[in-house]
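pls ignore typos typing on phone
iron/sulfur cluster + seq
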Amino acid sequence: MKCSKCGNPNVIIKKEQSGQYLCKDCFIESIEKKAIKTVRKEKMLDKGDKVLVALSGGKDSVTVLEVLDSFRKLNIIDLCAVTIDEGIAGYRQEGVDIAIRHAERLGIEHRIVSFKDEFGITLDEIMNSNPSKGSCTYCGVFRRAILNKAARDMGATKIATGQNLDDEVQGILMNYLEGNIDNLTKLGPKTTSKSEKFTVKIKPLREIPEHEIGLYVVAKELEVHFAGCPYAQQSFRGEVSQLINNLSENHPTIKYSTLRGYDKIREVVKEEFKKEYTVSRCERCGEPSANKLCRACVFLEEFGR
Ligand code: SF4
Ligand code: ZN
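k done
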């Protein structure tokens, strides 16, 4: 088999969507082109943006950093990064170290913020205290709070996260299966918050399947943290992911079609289910919130913090 683009006999992948066979160089180029095309199509960036990358050191965030760095090199945007240490023993530190090395390599401003410093409690402590919700619920809320605050402190105008096609399709299906239409309307390439107190979030990798991102970092010899979070398997997301991957075996383009279908109805659903609420400030921490207390503070009260 030869590369469908350049004829190189050393093919490393058959692309599920296009059926093309690609060699290493053409594959790397295809991933970068695809992400750049998504960024342009969805108008994710404006000239002069300072983009904060949520850099965990995992394959997705390192790829986002790499893609956005091409816009930085063209002087279209400026970049900075934040690494969040949730406090997961034996797991997080390696990612933090890798994130530090990438930020140094590119010479970008980088901060590390821990749950412990910010909220006085680690994710491990939360999970050992018989919590009412799953790990990812707390983790997601605390992480969003940290990112939003860091973006403000660092003067960032956008926050870029590493959600890939698999993540996005899991989110669509999970919210649909749970009947959570409010959350369903919040998915998409770019968050549009009613309040300027929340920094706009963008997802440059949302059209690229997870396994292709894994292959991209290997092909490009980028250092990444490959270990999975020890809490990931306990989650509903893990079950939904399994379901979609099983379906993909006989229906290889099902992730793309799910995303395409969602993108077609997204604006209609958003318009139909839009909620009118005003964003004020959390009475406890002062962060923007639609309720008296923000979700992070509601959770912190559960743990007596
Ligand atoms: Fe947090 Fe869940 Fe991701 Fe682990 S899998 S880092 S607990 S969101
Ligand atoms: Zn609060």
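The chain has a mean pLDDT of 94. The pocket of zinc ion (ligand 2) is lined by residues 282, 284-285, 287, 293-294, 296-297 (CB under 6 Å). more later
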